[in-house]
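Hi there, hope your week has been kind to you so far. Do you reckon you could talk me through the fold, stretch by stretch? Thanks so much in advance, here it is.
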Amino acid sequence: MKWGKLYGPEYVNRLHAMVTRNLSYPFKMVCFTDDETGITPEVQCFPIPAMELPGGLPERMWKKLSTLKEDLYGLKGTALFLDLDIVIVAPIDCFFDYKGEFLIIKDYKKQWRITGNSSVYRFEIGQHGYVFNDFLQNFDEIRKRHRNEQEYLTQAIYDKGKLAYWPKEWCPSYKYDCVSKFPLAFWVKPFIPKGAKIIIFHGEINPHKAIKGGRGKWYRYVQPAPWVADYWR
């Protein structure tokens, strides 16, 4: 999904190229977006499914829940949702082979919680419409109980007994698993953890910032990671 100005079409095009290099199965990539300008014709674009939420709300990624609609532009089959700012570093056939009805990344920091990270999740299109329908019907109450989309999504799937997680090593966090802790981050270069398939970028550091390294408003100095450019293309 791509909306607003945070990510340009190059993020979609790079993602398509990475999947093409790393997935041996036939696939179709779909992008839900409010602006398809510059996106390669190899990616099929649709408008972001309507949700009719109140205006002026803080961004909590609620739009992602529209991927769980029962009728999703007539699309069928197994869907692997991928955030735009991930970096694929190994073959990903295993994400389609792994058993489970709904698979998601386990929360990085608070392993005792059931909450998942929705940068990478897999589902059968149209089989989890109860998530989307319940959200629209009980939006005000859900906003009080859940901080963001992935927290609600995980709970809703868990309540149906259909939640499972990817193997921990498959989707490491760049922030927590690739960058050494302070003060080692000043001189130890970021690395690809053993067993990694897809590197997840969350927080302020995105792939283009990781390549250059440096410091930001909300993070201390980190060494450049030129290897990111080798995969993120």
